Amino acid sequence: MKALLAPALAAALLAGCAQAAAQHFTGVAVPPVAAPSFTLTSDTGAPWTLAAQHGKVVALFFGFTHCGDTCPATLAKLASVLRHDARGTNAEIAFVTIDPKRDTPAVMHAYIRRFSGATIVGLTGTPEQIASVERAYSVWSKPLADPYGGTNYDEAHSAFTFLIDRSGNERVVHNDDDAQRDYAADVRTLLQ
């Protein structure tokens, strides 16, 4: 009887340890799978590749510099999270434009400088390159015509932040409505 209980007890203890070691997230946890890699042009004009960021937690966010609400609010939350985390040097924000027509490297550079204290890279490319990255992450965007018939336009888009761990795996997805403390909790978990 004791011989039968010992393996069962050991299995139960191991299962309990595995559950205790599991990471818990406030955002939507996804099974750890390799994040689709891509190469775009950074706000400094240099090539930037997601695969080269291994060793860092990457908060991947899609938006555009002419956005009046969602994009600056989300970038401000993310910048604050990294600014207040002592380990923020091991994390960065990758802000991918959905509006490459207007968001040149220089425009992206001027825009991200508004969010100080965190490592942020603005990423742009050709419309084809941006569309390819959007498809890889199931991001949706659509230009909206100027209602007054002018040349100004807006962009409708999904507003998710993808948290990618230091091994390059997607781990968590956040919505732009999520609280800053929720982003912070998940970044801290991934930095442990």
Report what the structure shows.
By secondary structure, this protein is an alpha+beta fold. The protein has one domain: Glutaredoxin (3-Layer(aba) Sandwich). It contains five helices and ten strands. It has an eight-stranded mixed sheet with strand order 1-10-9-4-5-6-2-3, with helices on both faces. A hairpin with a 4-residue loop joins strand 9 and strand 10. Helix 2 packs across helix 5.
Q: Kindly state the number of beta strands.
A: 10
Integer average pLDDT: 85
Which structural class do you get from the secondary structure elements? alpha+beta
User: What would CATH call the homologous superfamily?
Assistant: Glutaredoxin
CATH architecture assignment: 3-Layer(aba) Sandwich
Apparent shape: globular
Taking the alpha carbons of the first and last residues, their distance comes to: 42 Å
Number of helices: 5
Helix content: 25-40%
**How much strand?**
25-35%
